Here is the input.
Amino acid sequence: MDNKFVNIMSPNGSTKYLFFGGKGGVGKTTLATTTAVWFADQGYRTTIVSTDPTVSLSTMFGQEIGGETRVPIRHVSNLCGLNINPNDAKGVFQKRLNSVMGQMTGTFGGDIVSTPCAEEMATFDQFVTFLEEPDSEVIVFDTAPTGKSLRELAMPFDWAGFLQKQIQDGKELARLMNMDEDSFDKLEQDKLRYENALSVLRNRSTTVFNLVLLPERLPIEETYSAITGLDRLGISVQSLITNQCILPEVVEGNRFLAARAEVQSRYLDEIGSRFKDLIQTRLPLLDHDVSDLASLRQVGKIIYGE
Ligand SMILES: Nc1ncnc2c1ncn2[C@@H]1O[C@H](COP(=O)(O)OP(=O)(O)OP(=O)(O)O)[C@@H](O)[C@H]1O
Ligand SMILES: [Mg+2]
Here is the structure.
């Protein structure tokens, strides 16, 4: 067991937000659900939130998990799940936006509502609610592949700036037209909400960004660019999990496996040296997939210990 890894992931008096990002298909959902089940089994009140429009979470736990309310996960005490569907969230968000914009629609409301990024903004808005009302000790996020989640994360940066400008311009206009300036209070509240969310995301002691990768060229490069992209947002990646590593003991003279293991070993060395500042964990390639509670608990033991 890597104590250092368990330590950074564990709640230390305040809620922990644990993110799992990475290239498509590398094992984000596997690691996020494993982590959620492990912490719940340790007795922590835990929530797993998926911002992925697919039904992975429902499939993994064999029960319907929607975006309206959190549902208790069967056979795992202390664990709830929520699957934010960007399309549904967009509707909720637009309603809220329309009411905030209310009398201002003519001036600038349309601009915001028609933004091509409304979906990402909506997902982020829902997600900010979790940062504001943490009623769990551990909140695990299973994010969409890197590019998309980076866009989601970058959104409030633009959004906060955008709101700032709208508030300034709008207030000026309101003064000129003798309109009520109080209607900008809600916008200001939104801006504050987003700024607070960003400071939570940037705080290394409350939020841990994990990137999952395979010991292969493309995932390594994508990991590097995700780290750089997040860094630009003031968010630091703290840990890497290299998945599907072929253990020497499974090769047993099989030439095909031996060749793959040899290629992996070069990439593992590269990962070790190129990302040496991050906490690194490895998960072996298993002889089965990870799609039920028993295998999630098995992976939990490998990653976090008994
Ligand atoms: N160590 C492993 N050994 C064997 N199978 C694995 C391992 N890790 C993950 N898998 C399997 O690989 C597949 C992809 O994993 P997963 O769904 O967690 O990836 P993902 O990064 O969430 O994908 P997506 O980008 O589509 O959301 C799943 O079928 C999972 O069961
Ligand atoms: Mg997934």
Summary: Residues 3-304 form a domain with the Rossmann fold fold (CATH 3.40.50.300).
